[in-house]
Amino acid sequence: MTGSSLTRHQGGCHCGAVRYEVDIDAATGTMCNCTVCTKINSVGAIARPAAFTLVSGADSLSTYEWGGKTAQRKFCKHCGVHCFAFGHLDVLGGDYVAIHLNTLDDFDLSKAKLSYWDGRNNNWQGGQRPTPWPITA
To answer: Of 20, 22, 116, 117, which residue is the least packed, with the fewest Cβ within 10 Å?
Structure first.
């Protein structure tokens, strides 16, 4: 979330109603095996709230929360694209913005180094690892 690899990126939803800017390292991303991230195939990265600016589309955003309500996932109510989430987890250093890297205008998944979280089992203390966590019931 911090360091010299942070770069300003622009991003948004598919229809263009939601636009944002964020200072983030888009060369590294994470994937989570929780039921939501799995279904939307999220590739994420974490930014501090001060590094994020919603440029346009506040009135076009809807929110989805579930379970422990650790994150408010924001998606465009017109095209359905999940762009980012606001949340708080102590293991992530408190308040954060989770950016869906695929919504950045210049993101190339083939160039990103990925690591994996075990969100399905609420195993945040397990940390990230270089291979996907198994999907277990």
So the answer is: 116
H or E element that contains 116: strand 113-117
Q: Give the model's pLDDT for residue 12.
A: 98
Q: Are 25 and 46 in contact (CB under 8 A)?
A: no
Task: Name the strands in the sheet holding 113-117, side by side, starting at the edge strand that comes first in the sequence.
Answer: 61-64, 71-76, 82-89, 94-100, 44-47, 28-32, 113-117
Please, which residues have CB within 8 angstroms of residue 67's CB and are 6 or more apart in sequence? none
* Percent helix, strand and coil across the chain, each to the nearest 5: 20, 40, 40
Q: Tell me the C-alpha distance between 49 and 130, whole Å.
A: 26
Distance from C-alpha of 109 to C-alpha of 63, rounded to nearest angstrom: 26
